[in-house]
């Protein structure tokens, strides 16, 4: 099992650094492990009906061309997101007999499939015709099993993994109470990520404490209407930064005191795992995959959509010594489970089983 076709509707470029970076990281990990990986990916995040039609048409044709070109040598297609990527994998299977596995990341199951009965039906068909379904978190796996009638034995819970050679701790500087305490958020600046509650909670923390605090938000601000809603809560202690290259994100994680991810829903929460790998404590919402990732002592969970509860936990982090707030033993267990190298080994087993069971059916 050495050649696979990866299809993804999200993939980063130099101009769009965070757009599906987790897919690219996994592709590079597979190549590092000796796989030959052919890609058919959409690297254009543009929105609007015309842009979406044009970019998806181009991407779809590219996927079909890759499927045809490599039809005799690719053993398995791996689609990231059930829809739309899984639809292309299904078409390629029907045209060229190449079996496929699909990774569900959360939004494809929790939001996209619920937009209409047609999309739900298509998602159901895509999952049913796959050789295997990968869910990035256990809650998502349960949804797939229950809502789409996928047999439990056909589903594996496998995160995208973290490269612990890239995301690693740096020596923490000795600080005094005169120096600012830094909170960090990395992700798209959208309502579903809980950014509004985060800024509100930060202001509550700021008004109650003696030590200066700072909040840095790194991510794309494509939803300008939502960003305008945030303006009343933004002051000189809240900084917005556009998406950064991964090495710079690692440095930000290493330098920050606490990482905060107050999402309303989250299939897994990979950036929280990356924060843990850099030695930075995590506060996150008690939703989706974050529950299993952080729920056994590796992090700190708060109710979603609750700025007051979030502020209380952020304040606690400010006053508790790092050694007491960061449970190193629990974190190491999590990092071992989700180490990128272990993920690749599990993927290889799934690819081999899919190729044996699905080729030219």
TrEMBL record:
Signal peptide: none annotated. Keywords: Transferase. One of its GO terms (molecular function) is glycosyltransferase activity. Gene3D superfamilies: Glycogen Phosphorylase B (3.40.50.2000). Pfam families: Glyco_transf_4 (PF13439), Glycos_transf_1 (PF00534). Residues 22-165 form the Glycosyltransferase subfamily 4-like N-terminal domain. Residues 173-321 form the Glycosyl transferase family domain. This is Putative teichuronic acid biosynthesis glycosyltransferase TuaC. The gene is tuaC.
């Amino acid at each position: 099992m050495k050649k696979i076709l990866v299809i993804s509707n999200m993939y980063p470029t130099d101009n769009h650094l965070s757009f599906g970076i987790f897919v690219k990281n996994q592709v590079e990990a597979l190549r590092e492990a000796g796989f030959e990986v052919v890609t058919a990916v959409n690297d254009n995040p543009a929105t609007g009906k015309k842009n979406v039609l044009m970019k998806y048409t181009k991407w779809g044709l590219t996927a079909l061309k890759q499927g045809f070109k490599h039809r005799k040598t690719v053993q398995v297609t791996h689609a990231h997101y059930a829809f739309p990527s899984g639809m292309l994998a299904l078409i390629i299977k029907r045209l060229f007999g190449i079996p496929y596995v699909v990774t569900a990341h959360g939004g494809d199951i929790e939001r996209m499939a619920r937009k209409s009965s047609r999309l739900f039906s298509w998602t159901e068909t895509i999952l049913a015709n796959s050789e295997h379904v990968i869910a990035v978190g256990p809650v998502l796996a349960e949804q797939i099993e229950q809502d789409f009638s996928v047999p439990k034995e056909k589903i594996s819970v496998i995160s995208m993994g973290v490269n612990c050679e890239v995301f690693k701790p740096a020596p923490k500087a000795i600080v005094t109470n005169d120096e600012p305490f830094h909170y960090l958020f990395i992700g798209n600046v959208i309502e579903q990520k809980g950014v509004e509650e985060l800024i509100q909670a930060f202001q509550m923390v700021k008004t109650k404490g003696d030590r200066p605090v700072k909040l840095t938000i790194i991510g794309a601000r494509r939803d300008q209407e939502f960003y305008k809603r945030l303006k009343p809560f933004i002051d000189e202690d809240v900084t917005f930064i556009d998406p950064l290259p991964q090495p710079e994100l690692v440095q930000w994680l290493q330098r920050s005191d606490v990482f905060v991810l107050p999402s309303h829903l989250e299939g897994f929460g990979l950036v929280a795992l990356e924060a843990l790998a850099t030695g930075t404590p995590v506060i996150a919402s008690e939703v989706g995959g974050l529950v299993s990732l952080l729920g056994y002592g590796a992090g700190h969970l708060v109710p979603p959509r609750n700025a007051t509860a979030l502020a209380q936990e952020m304040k606690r982090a400010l006053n508790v010594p790092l050694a007491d707030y960061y449970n190193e033993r629990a974190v190491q267990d999590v990092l071992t489970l989700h180490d990128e190298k272990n993920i690749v080994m599990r993927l290889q087993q799934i690819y081999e089983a899919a190729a044996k069971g699905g080729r030219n059916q």
